Amino acid sequence: MLRWLVSLLAVSAAVGCRGAAPKPGLPELAAQINAAIPAAWKGKVTLEPWTVDSNGHRYTLLLPKGWKLSPVHEGTVVPADNNQLDDSEVFGSGNEVSVMSYCAGDCSPGRDWYKASDDQIFAQFRDMRVRGTVLSDERQPNGRLLITQREPEKGTDVKVTAQDKSRIVVRAWWDKNGSSYHVCQVVLSDVSYELAPAMAAACMTATATPLPGAASK
Q1: What is the C-alpha separation between 176 and 170, in angstroms, rounded?
Q2: CATH of the domain at 135
Q3: Range of the domain at 100
Q4: What angle do CA 29, 32, 37 make, to 5 degrees?
Q5: What is the pLDDT of residues 177-205, one digit of tens each?
Q6: How far is CA 115 from CA 106, 121, 129, 137, 176, in A?
Q7: Domain assignment of residue 158, yes or no
Q8: For 105-146, what is each residue's pLDDT tens digit?
Q9: Which candidate, 98, 149, 102, 108, places its Cα nearest to that of 121?
Q10: Residues 200 and 170 sit within 8 Å (Cβ to Cβ)
Q11: The whole model's pTM is what?
Q12: Which of 76, 137, 148, 213 would bridge with 132, disulfide CB 3.0–4.6 Å?
C-alpha cells in the first residue's frame, strides 16, 4: 500500500512543481490515479476535476464523480447516496472530503505555516485526541501529508480492534509568504478505506485561489 501511495504521489507531485517538464493537467492526473484504484472499486469510483468554494477560496482538485456538496458543511463533498445519517450503501458511513483555509487566528503573511498547521491540525492525531494509528506522515516542500487508521472511541459499545480499517487523510499546503494555509481532509469508512492512497493523491492535486474580500480562520 505504501509503495502504491508513493507512486501516486510521484504522479501528483508535479502539481505545483516548477521544473522544465510541462505541468500535467487534472484530466491527465485523473487518468493515472484512476488507473491505480483498487479493482474492487473500479466502476464505483472515478475521480474527475472539481471546483469547490470554501472559506474565501476556490479550490480546484480531483474528487469522485457523482458526489455532491454537503448541505450542512461548507467546502465538503459527500457520496451522492448519503442519507440523513451520512450513510451510503456504496461507501459506508461518514465518508467526506473537505477543503478549507486556516491561519490559526494570526493571518500575518509569512508565518511558520508548518508549525501553525501542526498545532491546529496534525497534533490531534499525535496526542490521540483523534484516536488511531498514524500510518504515514510525510513532510513535503511547503506541505505535509498524513494518513491515519481510526479507532472507535473507548467507552462505547464498539470494541477498539485492529479490524477497524477506517482512514483519515490530511494534506496541508501553503505559500511560504501567504497569509494562510490550506487543508484537504478525507474521511473514509471501514468499507471504503482501500481508497485512501487514491484520495491522498487526489488531495495532492488541490490548488487554491483567493476569492475577493475573503478572510481565513
Answers
A1: 19
A2: 3.40.1000.10
A3: 2-15+23-86+95-151+165-210
A4: 120
A5: 999 999 999 999 999 999 999 999 999 99
A6: 12, 10, 18, 15, 12
A7: no
A8: 899 999 999 999 999 999 998 877 777 889 999 998 899 999
A9: 102
A10: no
A11: 0.85
A12: 148
